[in-house]
Amino acid sequence: MKILVPVKRVVDYNVKVRVKKDETDVELDNVKMSMNPFDEIAVEEALRLKEKGVASEIIAISIGLSEVQETIRNALAMGADSGIFVNCTSKLEPLSVAKILTSICNKIRPDLVIMGKQAIDDDMNATGQMLSAMLNWGQATFASKLEIQDKKIKVGREIDGGIENIEVNLPAIVTTDLRLNEPRYASLPNIMKAKRKPIDEIKVEDLNIDIEPRLEILKVEEPKSREAGIMVKSVDEMIEKLKNEAKVI
Amino acid sequence: MKTLVIVDHSNNKLEKSTLNTVKAGIQLENVDLLVLSDSCKDICNELIHIKNINNIFINENDAFKNQLAEDSANFIAENFKDYTNILFSNTSNGKNIAPRLAGLLDTMIIPDVIEIVDKQTFKRPIYAGNAIATCKSKNKINIITIRSTAFEEAEISHENVGEIKEIGSLTTNNLTKYLNSELTKSERPELTSADIVVSGGRGLGSAENFQVLEKLADKLGAAMGASRAAVDAGYVPNDWQVGQTGKIVAPNLYIAVGISGAIQHLAGMKDSKVIVGINKDEEAPIFSISDYGLADDLFKAVPEMESKLN
Ligand SMILES: Cc1cc2nc3c(=O)[nH]c(=O)nc-3n(C[C@H](O)[C@H](O)[C@H](O)COP(=O)(O)OP(=O)(O)OC[C@H]3O[C@@H](n4cnc5c(N)ncnc54)[C@H](O)[C@@H]3O)c2cc1C
Predict the structure, then answer these.
(1) pLDDT range class, residue B10, cuts 50, 70, 90
(2) pTM assigned to the model
(3) ipTM of the complex
(4) Chain B residue closest in CA terms to A166
(5) Could you give the domains of chain B?
(6) Exposed site from A10, A224, B157, B270, fewest CB < 10 Å?
C-alpha cells in the first residue's frame, strides 16, 4: 500500500505573528518556519501503518518555493521514503493545491492520502475535502483513530458532539486531528539518512492546471484588541465585580 | 442573486448556529433553506418561523440521517448550482461538507467568515485569529461557512413564514458508510451557544479534579469547556476543546481555570464579553486578556467561589 502525505511549511506554532505595517500580510521575514503540526501527525500515522506492515511506501509532497524542500526533508527524516517537490512560485490557495494533488494522485495512484485537517497559517480546513471531491474518493476528516482492514479504512472522527465512526473504501483521504497520535522527533542518524533519500522535482507549469487564486486578499489587519482588565485580590471581590460591574452573574 | 442556507442538525434537532447563519444569509439577500435529513418535520416546525426567508427545501432520505459529506455535497451540487451563495455553519458538519461541495463546483471556499463587507467581500480570521483578512471573491458561486459567534440570530415570528417544498432525489454514495457514534451526554447548555462557559486546563491535574469545576459550572448554569492539554491528558472528552482547532465560543462570561492562555486557546474564546482568569501563576498569559484576574490556587478559589454564589 502506497501512502501520500502532503506537508506544508508554515510559521511555527510558537511564533506570535504580527501584521505588517502596510496591512498587506503578516510579517514573514526572519520568522521561524516549521512543518504544519497537523501534517506531522499525518506523517507519523503513515509511519505507524508502515511499521505495522500495512503500508509499504510513504511519499511526502510539498508545493511552493524551493524552501518547502526543507519540509519534505523533515518528513523524510521522520521516516518517509521519498519526496515530491512541486515547484510553484505563485500564491496558492486550497483549491489550487487540491487540483495539483489531484493531478499527482492520478499519476502515482496512492491507496491513501493522509493530510492535516487544517494549516495553522490560513486556518482554511479545506484541502482534504476538496481533493476527495475532485478524485471522487471517500473522505474521513478530523480523524482521531484509524484502522485498516482489507480494502477499507475505519476512522473515528472528532465531531461537535463526540466521536463518529465511519468506514471508507480505499483509496481514500484522511485528514488528521490532534489526538490521532503524537509525532516522533527525527533522530540524528535519520536526519543524515534523509539527505540521501530522493526528492522528485515537478514544475507546476508542466501540470497544466489553472491555479489562478479566486480570493484576492485586500487587507490583513490586527484584530480588535480588548480593553485592559484588572487583577482582583479575593474571591469576594471577584464575585462583587461580576455581579455589580460586569453584571454577568 | 439567490442564497441557500444549509440547515445544520444533529439527530434531527436543529443546531442553533443555523439561526446565525441565516442572519448572515439575509445580508446577502433572497434566502432559501435546505434541510437534508431522514425526518424533516421537527426541524421544519422551527424553521417556518424564521423571518425574511423564502422557501424551505427538504429532502427526506435515510441516507441523510448521518449527513455523510459524500451524499450531502453531491445532492447540493446537483440541485443548487444556480445559487450565488451557499452558506453553512462552521460546525463539524459544515466543515466536513462545505469544502467537498466547493471541490465539486470548482469554487474556492470562504471559511469561517466573521463579517460580510459587501456581496463579494468577506472578513475571516487567519493565524489563530491574530490577524483578520479581508478577501474579495472572484468565485461564480460563493460557498461560505459562517462563524456563528460573529452574527446574531435571525429573528423569529409567531406566524408561519417559509414555504416547505420537496426537492431533488439522491443517488447514495458507495464510498463511505456510517457505523456509529459515541456522543458525550450532558445536561448542561451547549458549549458554543451557552451564556456562561467554565473551562479547565492542565492545572486541574486529573479527571476527578474536574468535578470541582463542574460544581461551579452547575451553580452558574454554565457549559463546560477545556484546553487542548486537558483533553489530550484524557481529563475530559474531545468535544469540550476550545481553541483554534477546537470550538469557537463567545459567551457573556468565560471563566478560564488552570489554563495558561496559549494563543491557540485564546483563538477560541477571546471574543467572549467578559473573561475571568484563575491561575496560580501571576505571570500567566491568560491574565493579559482577562477582564478580571485572580492569582490563586484553583483548588482553594474555585470551591470558595462555588460556595459563595447563591
Ligand atoms: C496545532 C496546534 C493546535 C492547538 N489547538 C489548541 C486548541 O484548539 N485549544 C487549546 O486549548 N490548545 C491548543 N493547542 C495547545 C496549546 O498550544 C497549549 O499547549 C494548550 O492550550 C495548553 O493548555 P493548558 O493551558 O491547559 O496547559 P498549560 O499551558 O500547561 O497551563 C496550565 C496552567 O495551569 C496553571 N495551574 C497549575 N496548577 C494550578 C493550580 N493548582 N491552581 C491554579 N492554576 C494552576 C499553571 O500555572 C498553568 O498556567 C494547540 C497546539 C498546537 C500545536
Answers:
(1) confident
(2) 0.97
(3) 0.97
(4) B178
(5) 3-166 (3.40.50.620), 191-308 (3.40.50.1220)
(6) A224
